[in-house]
Amino acid sequence: MTRAQYDYSSHTLVLTGACGSIGRAIAQRFFDSGANCVLTDLDQDSVSAFADSLDPTGQRVLALALDVTDPAKVDAVMQASHDRFGPIHALVTSAGLYDDAMVADMPDAQWQRAIAINLDSVFYTCRAAIPFMAEQSAIVNIASLAGHRGSRAHAHYAAAKGAVLSFSRSLAVELAPKIRVNAVSPGLIDGPMVQNLLSLTGSHFIDQTPMKRLGQPEEVASAIAFLCSADASFVTATSMHINGGLYIAS
Ligand SMILES: NC(=O)c1ccc[n+]([C@@H]2O[C@H](COP(=O)([O-])OP(=O)(O)OC[C@H]3O[C@@H](n4cnc5c(N)ncnc54)[C@H](O)[C@@H]3O)[C@@H](O)[C@H]2O)c1
């Protein structure tokens, strides 16, 4: 099976959480489609090394350290992106934190950190990008299956991701018709984020998934590439499930 190819030459992607497993797949997909890529993550060395591996010439990639919980730094990244590449055509918020705690045992600081990284950051990033977004551009916020269904021992994460879904729908109404805003909701996607869950639950969730496997980061990147493309020109204010059917099976 061949994946659809979009022509993103002379387009610019701004991506948070670029060094994550899904972030890397998104960056690769957009870079291979010709886009300029502004890649951001917490650690400058890691994001620079990833950027070098994508584009050793450095011509189409800008690597910037960014803690998405710091609104002033988020503002500075959008300005730097615009200074280097001009208007932004695609904004994807992939930074996220998934840790475990039962509500009865959850300290305030753990709740607040989860909300800051998974929700506040999406507000800061979208708000900062708006003045720099091109006509007919697209925002995709990465939510989660947990934001629809809830998740035992992840109430903080699920609450934040559920809010990302409603935030994205609200923003879509505010920014139409210039900018489309959608969310994607991955289920269990191969990578470090789900390793702890799998070690605790074994094959339970894979058995529950009609497709009988984990998703691959490239499958999330494909959905995002579609949502940012002209093929999705009438698609806004929605969320796309990418979970092999786990959403309806339980
Ligand atoms: N992997 C899954 O199964 C899955 C399922 C549902 C949703 N998601 C969501 O998809 C997105 C990407 O997940 P992933 O699997 O690539 O996770 P990952 O853990 O591999 O990557 C997350 C990235 O976010 C970065 N990050 C964390 N805190 C940050 C901060 N304060 N500022 C900037 N960057 C920060 C990390 O450095 C890391 O590179 C996340 O939003 C996650 O919640 C993932």
Describe the structure.
With 250 residues, the chain is α/β, with parallel strands linked by helices. It has one domain (12-242): NAD(P)-binding Rossmann-like Domain (Rossmann fold, 3-Layer(aba) Sandwich). 45% of the residues lie in helices and 18% in strands. It has nine helices and seven strands. It has helices at 21-32, 44-54, 71-85, 108-129, 145-149, 155-175, 192-201, 204-208, 217-227; strands at residues 12-16, 36-41, 61-65, 88-93, 133-142, 179-186, 239-242. Strand 1, helix 1 (21-32) and strand 2 (36-41) form a beta-alpha-beta unit. Helix 3 (71-85) runs parallel beside helix 4 (108-129) and helix 4 (108-129) packs parallel to helix 6. The mean pLDDT is 97. The chain binds nicotinamide-adenine-dinucleotide (NAD). Nicotinamide-adenine-dinucleotide binds next to helix 1 and helix 7.
* Total number of distinct structural domains: 1
The overall pLDDT average reads 97
Low-confidence stretches: none
The helix/strand class is alpha/beta
How much strand?
15-25%
- Radius of gyration, whole Å: 17 Å
CATH topology: Rossmann fold
Termini separation comes to 29 Å
CATH class, named Alpha Beta
The helicity comes to: 40-55%
The rough form would be described as globular
Task: Give the strand line-up of the largest sheet.
Answer: 3-2-1-4-5-6-7
CATH superfamily: NAD(P)-binding Rossmann-like Domain
CATH architectural grouping? 3-Layer(aba) Sandwich
Largest sheet: 7 strands, parallel
| Ligand roster | nicotinamide-adenine-dinucleotide
Number of helix segments? Answer: 9
Overall number of strands:
7
Order of helices and strands: EHEHEHEHEHHEHHHE
